[in-house]
Amino acid sequence: MTLKTITTFAGRLSAPLRALGLACGVASAADLDGKKKAAVPAPAPAAPAWDVAFGFRALSDYNFRGISQTDRKPGVQAYAELTYQWLYAGISGASVDLPTKPSAEIDFTYGIRPKFGPFTFDLGMIHYYYPRETRYIDTVGTIWTPKNTDFYDIAFKALYNYDDKVFVGANVFHSPNWLGTGATGTYYSGTLKVVPPLPIEGLAVSGELGRYALGTTSAYLGGLNLKDYTYWNAGVSYTYKQATLDLRYHDTDLKKADCFLNTSDPRGITSGSGTSKWCGAAFIATLSLDLTASGLGLIK
């Protein structure tokens, strides 16, 4: 091979080699640049379309809108709720000690719970069921309670959440047949919960102010005008993981005689006093455990 032939061959080969070197250089630069860039974080997993929430509570007294449901004694409760996007349906059970002596209180709830930014709305129904109850009739044959005290509430609730620090709520519950007495019952309330700027995470203070407007009972119960009343509570709670301890003060403006009129407390009948302590001031401690299937990794 002559020198001229070698030179010609080298010239033909130089262009592909330069192109290959340029490509390698670009690839190397891209590799180096890629090492300098931070990895893009993966997007947060979307919340599941459906979930199940459930929990348990132990209370020193079960207070329902200012009136003791356990004769001022401790009680236990449990609940479960299935949600699918805006829809929900739930069931809960509570131990009670009421004039008709039901074995428990069983509540069925269902409705819609849409959320728009910081606002959450709830439109639904609550059915209160008291199994195995018996009408309370005294020794002289006076009827004091309905045979069946089951009733339902139409419920509307609205909640405003400001930065998970302040929660302001408004609620309306209406029953056309309150506790089976034939009287209407409408409960209005406002709620406030504040997470204080303290180094103790999980601490919150909250309260509620409500008004219960009650109608007139059926004729067989005497056609009595039940007493409207104001109810309020205030307390502090501490949450650690899924457990919450709540310490709360409850009270109403009902006098003892008016409380007896609204409740037919058997103690007021047997004693002849015609009064009841079920609506007075009460300091109640509640320990609750609240869980979700998604939080436990059962739903993804």
Structure report:
With 300 residues, the protein is of the alpha+beta class. It has one domain (50-292): monomeric porin ompg (Porin). It has 3 helices and 15 strands. It has helices spanning 3-36, 256-263, 266-270, and strands at 50-59, 63-64, 67-68, 75-84, 87-94, 105-112, 115-116, 119-129, 151-162, 166-175, 185-194, 203-214, 229-240, 243-252, 282-292. 19% of the residues are buried. Residues 1-36 have low confidence and may be disordered.
Would you summarize the structure shown here?
The protein has helices at about 5-35, 255-265, 265-270; strands at about 50-60, 65, 65-70, 75-85, 85-95, 105-110, 115, 120-130, 150-160, 165-175, 185-195, 205-215, 230-240, 245-250, 280-290. The chain is of the alpha+beta class. The model is unreliable at about 1-35 (pLDDT under 50).
Offer a few descriptive terms.
300 residues; alpha+beta; two-stranded antiparallel ribbon; 43% strand
What secondary-structure arrangement, pairings included, does this model have?
Layout: H1 3-36, E1 50-59, E2 63-64, E3 67-68, E4 75-84, E5 87-94, E6 105-112, E7 115-116, E8 119-129, E9 151-162, E10 166-175, E11 185-194, E12 203-214, E13 229-240, E14 243-252, H2 256-263, H3 266-270, E15 282-292
Antiparallel strand pairs: 1-4, 1-15, 2-3, 4-5, 5-6, 6-8, 7-8, 8-9, 9-10, 10-11, 11-12, 12-13, 13-14, 14-15
